[in-house]
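Slide 14.
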Amino acid sequence: MRLKFLVLISFAISLSGCFLFDNNYKPMPPTPLKKFKATSNLRQLWSNSTSDGYRQGYLQLTPALDNNYIYTTSDDGRLVKIDKTTGDVVWHKELVCGFSTGPVLNDSTIFVGTYSGQIMAIRKSDGMLLWCANLNGEALAAPAVKGGIVVVKTTAGNVYAFDTETGAKLWAYQHSEPQMILRGSSSPCIVGNLVIVGFASGDLVALNLNNGMRIWQRTISYSYGSASAEQLVDIDANPIFYHGMIYAATYQGNIAALTLRHGNIVWQHKLSTYTNLIGVENRIFASDSNGNIWAFGARNGIVAWKQAALAYRSTTAPVKVGSSWLAIADGLGYLHIVGAGSGMFCARTQVVGTNISVPVVADGYDIYVYTSYGRLVKYQLGGKSNA
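Slide 15: predicted structure.
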């Protein structure tokens, strides 16, 4: 296997933008928060210390919701099932290998990647290990599952599909990746019979879900410049399917909308991000690598608004809350709520004594914040707001 140099995305690096290796460059200080008139409120319902969390800031150990429960993983190998209403732990499992991805679920099973280069299938009811399969490389993004197939991508550019029941390998796909990549990755996106996968080369590829054959390939961003850091164009934001189109974005490159069938680019806009995209109210939202929040028209890519008040605060990906709000956390431990229509702040709270680098998880107006030190906190957004 070809050696790859991984660039760590830590809080300091995320503040420094593309000047990753310039010793004379000093990161910008986090933008101080400004007061605003709150038009809604965040009420804490419960808090639970579930594990040691994810001390490695590049790990995207986003919790997973399932009916009445929420599941968390930690980099020290702890998997926890928690009651959403009470915050009580239903069961927890300690594994020798640490988890390198957040969990993904189907009706009966949890799928998760490990530091030792494996994907595990674990029974939801009691945490029993069902099967384990080896990967040629490390998975840093959650798998994707549909029907009887689970798909996982490694940082080496390998994509694998496994039978969800037996763990048998169904197919494998290899994509050529650059020598140096960011210490991160994106999850596959399954749409119908297609698996949409983003790679560190800046390429977006559509594979046949049943056999792994490549259907189309498009380059979202090209590397440029002579410096090593300038050539990083990784797709670390999960590709998404929204209103009939695929949306993808790269670090130091572009955000783009593509047709599902042929991968033709409908529009693109300059953007640098390594956090996930989301579609809400005919718009696509993204948090760029400097912490600014953007809203693009889903059909035409026109910028609807840009919120710069969280610049250099290491913001997480926006997440939809309720019908028309977005929740964003930051690396200094704050949870922010903005209107999807306007980008204006309507509520904010501080999660005391910690920082946050994974996206929050929302279920209606309930918001779950998983901190880097393993504390899971549930909030509820209430009151009225003009989004």
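Speaker note: The chain has a mean pLDDT of 88.
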